[in-house]
């Protein structure tokens, strides 16, 4: 990036004014977005205004529209809800109200509007924009604004950020507030789980989501629920029999707890609501189980935002300012959102249209279409849920179709490892394979600490922290002989390795060892799981999100205690070896003034424990399922003359998330991308976020705008990728 471009970012906003408002239902993480819009706006030289109480403030004007300063947004990052207030606004729906709003903006020279809210709020903004020139000519005719003012404000730029805990907006993978809502739900599910273990109970848990089942679906994946009811996919007509059969089956397998998750908008095939009370009555009447209903309600909107939502809000806020300042009269109003791990800009009305199409499809009972319109990520969640919950594990297997796959953990423990083991084991069993678990990593593989795992072996593992199988950092090279002997003894035909940097280097050693030992010529796949997020080939590792939230909680507590004392500096050391991911992202999420990392030379230990976050549970579950599906295919491919023989580079892979897709990459191909001395990938996507951290903490810094998010179209973006 040239010096001129650097300078351009700092002067981009000179002479411009931006107003930011939050509208509709509140969502955790909105404050992070407001803070980022204000600080990045000021950084670029623009003036930034708060609009208090949403559109109502825009209509009422006066004291509701106030200029923001750098300091006015400090200490708000960790607060839930929205500090500048949000209100449902009738006045803005009438043209008269919009006329008053236009007048208030023109008088202050504001021609850039950043709206943070749900689809209703964003549609309102688009209407406002399309009427803008008519509104101005009316104001001029009425003598309320001068011709000069009208020329100065000739067009209005609008950028939307979606804040909605339901994640019901099409075109964006995650809306601001969704992850935090999942945190609230999972906290409650975990609490319920412990009490239900004491008494044999069935719990029916109702979560928000009138038209969208996202929260219910991800919750059921994250807690291994027995059944989920969502509006997009009503159950079959005989669901009552099916549900009762499932519940009694899990009881006979030894489970003391049944969890049923219901979205508040759940319906049957005829569009009749299925309520949590209906389900409770059914279970009590047919099975006589002790059944309790918990309706979560507004708890889901409350509490502090999760690390993910703070980072999402901050990144989207930065992107929104850039989109506004680069806008021209011809650019359509856009929404900034996250697709996989990339910031994208999408035409606002395209997204709104698809969101409306979903509702229409559901009203017309075209449920398959509604599922498709929700996008690939939603469909993937549904497929994995169906696999893990609906299929009975096969009892008898056809001779010759059964393969033996072993699962192990390597490196330091990371939250979410157990969720990955659980889904790997269960998907393996569903496919009719024999699944072995290896204790204590490669060392256990050498010593023969190996046992067969059945369906209930991994029951209840999703929410447990650390590594139930035990994990060690030992590498395989020095024990090749013993490992080869055990591969033969236990007839292991494929290996799923869940772990950190050692899992990757161990994989490389196995590739090398294939030249010496035929036994090592079996397919293997590495699922990255480490709090440091330093495995080559993946933007995210299982466990890193949990670690980030642990750091955030610690920082929040320290900030609270420090608020009462003057001039204190707190230095918080995080883990991560030479990889600065945790320090950088935590700095962004906790609002730190500086984060020192190895990658920029300068120079809370128990991050591995604790219950995994919803993101890590869900990510680990999907990674395990995807790895096992790949493994089955690879074993079949490598089957020759009655035995497995795999010695091609693509039979030893890392399964990683790259930008928007989950991809399998041969470990040997990733060698060139790895700095082995410091145990980190050579290129790390999050280093691009460091300038944002520094701007938000008021450094004299140049913003790297070299990676542009270009405007895309929804339909085109979805093809040919597997999103997570």
TrEMBL record:
It catalyses: beta-D-fructose 6-phosphate + ATP = beta-D-fructose 1,6-bisphosphate + ADP + H(+). GO terms for molecular function: 6-phosphofructokinase activity; AMP binding; ATP binding; fructose-6-phosphate binding; identical protein binding; metal ion binding; monosaccharide binding. It holds the Pfam family PFK. InterPro entries: 6-Pfructokinase_euk, ATP_PFK, PFK_vert-type, Phosphofructokinase_CS, Phosphofructokinase_dom, PKF_sf. Residues 18-323, 405-607 form the Phosphofructokinase domain. Its cofactor is Mg(2+). SUPFAM superfamilies: Phosphofructokinase. Pathway: Carbohydrate degradation; glycolysis; D-glyceraldehyde 3-phosphate and glycerone phosphate from D-glucose: step 3/4. GO terms for cellular component: 6-phosphofructokinase complex; membrane. Keywords: Acetylation, Allosteric enzyme, ATP-binding, Cytoplasm, Glycolysis, Glycoprotein, Hydroxylation, Kinase, Magnesium, Metal-binding, Nucleotide-binding, Phosphoprotein, Transferase. The keyword Iron-sulfur does not apply. One of its GO terms (biological process) is canonical glycolysis. Signal peptide: none annotated. PANTHER family: ATP-DEPENDENT 6-PHOSPHOFRUCTOKINASE, MUSCLE TYPE, PHOSPHOFRUCTOKINASE. This is 6-phosphofructokinase type A. It comes from Ailuropoda melanoleuca. The gene is PFKM.
């Amino acid at each position: 990036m040239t010096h001129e471009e650097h300078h351009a970012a700092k002067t981009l906003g000179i002479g411009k004014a931006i107003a930011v408002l939050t509208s509709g239902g509140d969502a955790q993480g909105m404050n992070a977005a407001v803070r980022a819009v204000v600080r990045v706006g000021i950084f670029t030289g623009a003036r930034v205004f708060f609009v208090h109480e949403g559109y109502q403030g825009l209509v009422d004007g006066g004291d509701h529209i106030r200029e923001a300063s750098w300091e006015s947004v400090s200490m708000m990052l960790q607060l839930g809800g929205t500090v500048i207030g949000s209100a449902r606004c009738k006045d803005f729906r009438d043209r008269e109200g919009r006329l008053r709003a236009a007048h208030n903006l023109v008088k202050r020279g504001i021609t850039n509007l950043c709206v943070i809210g749900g689809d209703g709020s964003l549609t309102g903004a688009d209407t406002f924009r399309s009427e803008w020139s008519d509104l101005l000519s009316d104001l001029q005719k009425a003598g309320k604004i001068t011709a000069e003012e009208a020329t100065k404000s000739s067009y209005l730029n609008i950028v939307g950020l979606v804040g909605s805990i339901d994640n019901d907006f099409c075109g964006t993978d995650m809306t601001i507030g969704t992850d935090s809502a999942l945190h609230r739900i999972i906290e409650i599910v975990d609490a319920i789980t412990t009490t239900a273990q004491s008494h044999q109970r069935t719990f029916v848990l109702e979560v928000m989501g009138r038209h969208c089942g996202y929260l219910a679906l991800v919750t059921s994946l994250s807690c291994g629920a027995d059944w989920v009811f969502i509006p997009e996919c009503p159950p079959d007509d005989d669901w009552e029999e099916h549900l009762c059969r499932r519940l009694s089956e899990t009881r006979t397998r030894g489970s003391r707890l049944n969890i049923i998750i219901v979205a508040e908008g759940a319906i049957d095939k005829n569009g009749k609501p299925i309520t949590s009370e209906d389900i409770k009555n059914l279970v009590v009447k047919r099975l006589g189980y002790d059944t309790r209903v918990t309706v979560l309600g507004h708890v889901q909107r409350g509490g502090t935002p999760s690390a993910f939502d703070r980072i999402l809000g901050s990144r989207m806020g930065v992107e929104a300012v850039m989109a506004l300042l680069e806008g021209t009269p011809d650019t359509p109003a856009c929404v900034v959102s996250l697709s996989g791990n990339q910031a994208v800009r999408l035409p606002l009305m395209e997204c709104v249209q698809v969101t409306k199409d979903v509702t229409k499809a559901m009203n017309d009972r075209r449920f398959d279409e509604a599922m498709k319109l929700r996008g690939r990520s939603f469909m993937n969640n549904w497929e994995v849920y169906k696999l893990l919950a609906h299929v009975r594990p096969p009892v008898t297997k056809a001779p010759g179709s059964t393969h033996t796959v072993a699962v192990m953990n390597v490196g330091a423990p990371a939250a979410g490892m157990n969720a990955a083991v659980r889904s790997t084991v269960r998907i393996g069993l569903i496919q009719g394979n024999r699944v072995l678990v290896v204790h204590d990593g490669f060392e256990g593989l050498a010593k023969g600490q190996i046992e067969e795992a059945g369906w209930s072996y991994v029951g209840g593992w999703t929410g447990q922290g650390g590594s139930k199988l035990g994990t060690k950092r030992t590498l395989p090279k020095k024990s090749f002989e013993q490992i080869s002997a055990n591969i033969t003894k236990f007839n292991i035909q494929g290996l799923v390795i869940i772990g950190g940097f050692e899992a990757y280097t161990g994989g490389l050693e196995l590739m090398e060892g294939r030249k010496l030992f035929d036994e090592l010529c079996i397919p293997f796949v590495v699922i990255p799981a480490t709090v440091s997020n330093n495995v080559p080939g993946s933007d995210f590792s299982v466990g890193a999100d949990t670690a980030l939230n642990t750091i955030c909680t610690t920082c929040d507590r320290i900030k609270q205690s420090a608020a009462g004392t003057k001039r204190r500096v707190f230095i918080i050391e995080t883990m991560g070896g030479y990889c600065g991911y945790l320090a950088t992202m935590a700095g962004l999420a906790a609002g730190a003034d500086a984060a020192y990392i190895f990658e920029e030379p300068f120079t809370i230990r128990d991050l591995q424990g604790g219950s995994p976050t919803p993101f890590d549970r869900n990510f680990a579950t999907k990674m395990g399922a995807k790895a096992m599906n790949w493994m089955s295919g690879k074993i079949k491919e490598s089957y020759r003359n009655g035995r497995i023989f795999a010695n091609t580079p693509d039979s030893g892979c890392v399964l990683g998330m790259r930008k928007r897709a989950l991809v399998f990459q041969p470990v040997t191909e990733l060698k060139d991308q790895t700095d082995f001395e410091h145990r980190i990938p050579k290129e790390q996507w999050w280093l691009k976020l460091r300038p944002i951290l520094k701007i938000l903490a008021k450094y004299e810094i140049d913003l790297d705008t070299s990676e542009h998010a270009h405007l895309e179209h929804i339909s085109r973006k979805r093809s040919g990728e597997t999103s997570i």
